[in-house]
Amino acid sequence: LYEKYMFYENKVQDWLNQPIGTLSRALLPADKLDMAYNGTPIADFINRVQLYFSGAQVSAVGLANDIVGFKEKVSTRDIIATYPFPNTLVVFNISGKNLKLAMERSAEYFAYDSDGKLTISDKFLSPKVEHYNYDYFAGIDVTMDIRNPVGSRVTSIRYQGEELPEDRWLTLCMNNYRSSGTGGYECFRSCERVSQQQTEISELIMDYVLERGSIVVDKTKWLTVLH
């Protein structure tokens, strides 16, 4: 059986490894705390894809505990290894108030150790590791001050250069797993669902790369963390 089906196994591996497009630079993972603190172009790129296919104003994405990232020559294997979830894309109407609550949940990711050094909160490490419950946002400029108590760390949310009022409504896209409110994002449960796509997000990433062939990486920085 091994010899009989090895031909098909090799064909699958070749398909996974074949480049489907190129990026202007490789997008590789860094230390988890560093990515959360400084942002990561991996999340920015996935958010860019989600915004394109959803038409939403704001996007949010959580990254798996272990990711490969994207080499300059992007392969299907890279995409599956970087976005392994079988999720689909959901769009909500969300108020500035609920958007701030969602970001406050992400801000809980940061803590201080006994020496006063910035670290990752135990809430995301125990009883199991949950780096995927830290969400990266795009489309809004956010400032977090980690010196403030949990629940009051998001000090600024700006949309198109202006501070976002609590009663201003925007469209937010995210995966269907997060849209159910899991991971501490209960604020999403009261949001009105505008649409949901049936195509998995990993496939949307493939389509995005295939459509363009060559992509210039966006260097916009959406988050500033003070500590």
Question: How would you characterize this protein structure?
Answer:
The chain has 227 residues and is an alpha+beta fold. It contains seven helices and 14 strands. The chain has a five-stranded mixed β-sheet. The longest helix is centred in the N-terminal third of the chain and has 16 residues, at 2-17. The radius of gyration is 19 Å and the shape is globular. The model has no long low-confidence stretch (mean pLDDT 95).
Separation of the first and last Cα atoms: 59 Å
Strand order of the largest sheet: 7-2-11-4-12
Order of helices and strands: HEHHEEHEHEEEEEEEHEHEE
Contiguous helical run count: 7
Task: List the keywords.
7 helices; single chain; four-stranded mixed sheet; 227 residues; 14 strands; alpha+beta
Give a concise summary:
With 227 residues, the chain is an alpha+beta fold. Helix 3 crosses helix 7.
Annotate the secondary structure layout.
Blueprint: H1 2-17, E1 19-23, H2 32-38, H3 41-54, E2 58-62, E3 73-75, H4 76-82, E4 88-95, H5 96-107, E5 110-112, E6 118-120, E7 135-138, E8 141-145, E9 154-159, E10 162-163, E11 169-175, H6 176-179, E12 192-200, H7 201-212, E13 214-215, E14 223-226
Parallel strand pairs: 1-13, 2-11, 8-14
Antiparallel strand pairs: 1-3, 2-7, 4-11, 4-12, 5-6, 8-9, 9-10
